[in-house]
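Here is this case:
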Amino acid sequence: MEANIQLAKKLNRVAWGITIAVLVLVTLMRYVKLPVEADLYFLPPFHAVLNSLTAIILILALYFIKQKKVDLHRKAIYIAIGLSTLFLLSYVTYHFTSSATLFGDANHDGVVDAAEIAAVGSQRTIYFVLLATHIILAALIFPFILFTFIRAYTNQLERHKKMARWVFPIWLYVAITGPICYWMLMPYY
């Protein structure tokens, strides 16, 4: 058991390192644009698909653990983490190479004027509430997804269960709201 705790401590340090690296990348992608010849227009719908699949897999993982099918639960979580990792890498790539798409920018000029704001009405508020909660919760939950995984990986199952009870619904919310935000923003790509 002591070896598992020592491994968990090492993995926690790695998780914090990954978290810091991801937060730096996500911050930088807002300010740094890398020129590329290829049009990466296909990535936003790909991101929505990855998030949708993650949500489905998370629900399956919950179902499996409720059915005491631990091995299937574990496999589902590995898949969800893999999909989330692929999403994160693709998302950062897209935002390092592409300008932001603005909700309501119907003429695609990079400015949302008063007429465009009026045209979308309250949808704009709904979009921004969903987007803000999605982004804030994604940033906050990221390290805790890793820590929850580490608890299970190092066989600290009671600590894993305790964390998973609150980490899981937030991760699921983030996975669901990502595609909703994409669907709402889709007309402005």
